[in-house]
Design a protein that fits this description.
The protein is of the alpha/beta class. The chain is about 40% helix and about 15% strand. A hairpin with an 8-residue loop joins strand 6 and strand 7. The protein starts with a strand and ends in an 8-residue tail after the last strand. The structure holds S-adenosylmethionine. S-adenosylmethionine (SAM) binds next to helix 14, strand 14 and strand 16. This is EOG090X0615. InterPro entries: Glutathione-S-Trfase_C_sf (IPR036282), Methyltranfer_dom (IPR025714), SAM-dependent_MTases_sf (IPR029063).
Length: about 600
């Protein structure tokens, strides 16, 4: 299969992400086609000179769609070609498609290394973002004092991680292959599993074998180590495990690195304004493995009785002026300025219009691995979403299905609306693979598949859809649509996740709620209540969604907050539709 890697290049230099992607590709020895795109990296990254000669200079239209570096998997005219963006995802594809089994081993046990996207995995986030961000910061930020150098905390976190017991599958088997025999330690068999991780050394970041995680970390740690050495600081004296890891890595990948970067001393040291032999500060970090589950990550959790009372006060005390009638319709008392913008009427029109029996098999969610028990409900959800989209689009529109999963909605829309173009964006490799297979079977010419985080998506579009985009993902989609002045059709889920304090969105989002005195703490309680299958839960769900549509109404959108029918199609059945004003739309 032909793969093409697109790297941003300006005057023979690339960004740190471009450099790492190129390094992984060089190390894999793959015959990936390279396209060096004459394009600024778009990030604050310093420029790194690369050795690869400029073989092609294109202003690719793909760079309008998603961030660089990106990998195109498949031939140019392949209908189901896949665009992959994001360092871990790009690197995984490069390695996966190597002919060399030794290279493929870098994907670890069952090929899972860095498969979980960064927002779900601390480890992916560390390797794909945090180490890179801290390298950029160290190289570009003016330092506090010219005679003190603080070692980047990510390096210290790596040192702590390397101290922790190894977590790997088949660790006991591996231990038996190593020189240390558990039997020699005279430990009861049941204890061996527990202790095995402490008996093996962390030669590499995931254990005794080098993986993709090491490959992504290597360029940053090397660059940082060299910069520190320029100040007379020997990193290994302060972080011995990182020092040993780097030595081991250089033996394996040094050659690929040396053929990737052109002049390691390209970074302008004068800009750092450091005198030689400065005082070294090693920041304190948590003594923990980076594999550890983040206790701050969101969970639904139960509400305390105090929080439940607060939610009841918000709902019943009518600070939100939101109620549900017996027939399931909702009423909200809105300020006069919003009354004409927000419609909370019952949703009757968004029900089945599609004759599923007339559709080819790959359009049907049955082919998209939806289990039989959920199939009818999935069809009901798709019926409602598709009907709302069909009402909102015009001929020639570009529709983006954000968080498209296995492509149920995107593929259906592409099939039903042949004069529109549908782009599906999802960060889960396996789901995108299913979608790709279905697109190929249908030979859909009006569909594009992107495997990436939704926030990498850059393209112009007219309408954004998202069916059950988890938690904050719905709000990121909403934000993207508002910025693009695109229409939206959203059915959110995982409301409890919005209770997490470190999300990229500030809640509540709307002036409506802010002026009604709904605090972030109130909102967090509402969000957690929204995941409960009770009357208060359903009303809280609508209250969270009222904030979302009110946010869009504020930007001049005409919005409706309705429900997919029947209610039983999913406990998460709110349907948010927004059409930007000053835009005439005709039904196709
Ligand atoms: C519950 S599934 C819904 C999939 C599909 N829309 C459907 O209804 O079948 C949520 C999907 O969102 C994707 N996702 C979550 N956060 C994402 C993000 N930040 N960027 C891209 N995809 C994301 C997940 O990979 C998953 O496939």
């Amino acid at each position: 299969m032909t793969n093409t890697l697109y790297i941003p290049v300006v005057d023979g230099t690339t960004s740190i992400n471009g450099l790492i992607a190129l390094f992984v590709n060089n190390w894999s020895g793959n015959k990936t086609l390279l396209t060096l795109v004459d394009h600024p990296s778009g990030s604050e990254s310093p420029a790194f000179a690369i050795q690869t000669p400029i073989s092609a200079k294109v202003d690719s239209d793909l760079t309008l769609l998603t961030t660089l570096p990106l990998l195109v998997v498949g031939e140019r005219d392949d209908v189901s070609r896949l665009i992959v963006s994001g360092l871990a995802a790009v690197s995984r594809h490069v390695i996966k498609e190597s002919d060399n089994p030794e290279v493929r081993k870098a994907l670890g046990f069952r090929g899972n290394c860095l498969q979980a996207p960064a927002e779900c995995s601390i480890w992916t986030s560390f390797c794909e973002f945090q180490m890179i961000q801290s390298t950029i910061l160290f190289l570009t930020q003016p330092l506090m004092a010219a005679d003190i150098v603080e070692i980047p905390s990510t390096l210290v976190k790596l040192e702590e991680h390397l101290k922790q017991p190894i977590r790997m599958h088949n660790i006991v088997k591996r231990l038996q292959e190593e020189t240390i025999k558990p039997s020699a330690k005279q430990v009861p068999q049941e204890e061996i599993q527990k202790l095995a991780g402490t008996w093996l050394e962390h030669t590499y970041s995931e254990g005794p074998d080098m993986t993709l995680a090491d490959l992504l970390l290597f360029p940053c740690v090397t660059i940082l180590t060299e910069k520190l050495a320029n100040f007379g600081i020997v990193l290994a004296n302060h972080l011995p495990r990182v020092g040993r890891w780097l030595t081991a890595m250089k033996l394996l990948v040094g050659q690929a690195w040396n053929t990737t970067i052109s002049d390691p001393s390209i970074i302008d040291m004068d800009s750092l304004r450091i005198r030689s032999q400065p005082t070294v500060e090693v920041p304190r970090v948590k003594e923990t493995s980076l594999y550890k589950k983040d206790s701050n990550r969101p969970g639904i959790g139960n509400l305390s009785s105090e929080e439940a009372t607060r939610v009841a006060d918000l709902l019943k005390g009518k600070r939100l002026w939101l109620e549900e009638n017996e027939d399931g319709t909702r009423v909200a008392e809105l300020p006069p300025s919003l009354v004409s913008h927000i419609d909370i009427a019952a949703c009757s029109e968004f029900i089945a219009r599609i004759d599923w029996s007339s559709l080819p098999d790959p359009v049907h969610p049955r082919q998209g691995h939806v289990p039989g028990s959920r199939l009818d409900r999935k069809i009901q959800q798709l019926d409602g979403m598709a009907a709302a989209v069909i009402d909102a689009v015009s001929e020639g529109d570009v529709i983006v299905d954000f968080c498209s999963g296995g492509g149920h909605l995107g593929i259906l829309l592409a099939y039903l609306l042949p004069r529109c173009h549908v782009i599906m964006v999802d960060n889960k490799e396996e789901s995108v693979r299913h979608a790709r297979k279905r697109v190929a079977q249908l030979k859909l010419l009006n569909a594009t598949l992107i495997q990436s985080n939704l926030d990498y998506f850059r393209g112009p579009f007219d309408l954004g859809v998202a069916l059950h985009a988890c938690g904050v993902a719905t709000d990121l989609v909403l934000q993207t649509c508002l910025v693009e002045r695109a229409a939206f059709v959203l059915c959110p889920c995982c409301y409890g996740n919005l209770a997490h304090p470190d999300l990229p969105i500030q809640y509540p989002q709307s002036q409506l709620y802010l002026t009604r005195g709904v605090s972030a703490t109130d909102f967090s309680a509402l969000a957690r209540m929204a995941d409960h299958l009770t009357d208060a839960g359903r009303l809280s769900m609508a209250a969270v969604d009222l904030d979302r549509v009110a946010r869009a109404a504020q930007d001049g959108y005409r919005v409706t907050l309705q429900k997919l029918k029947p209610d039983s199609c999913s406990p998460k059945h709110d349907l948010l539709v927004g059409i930007p004003s000053k835009q005439t739309r005709t039904i196709s």
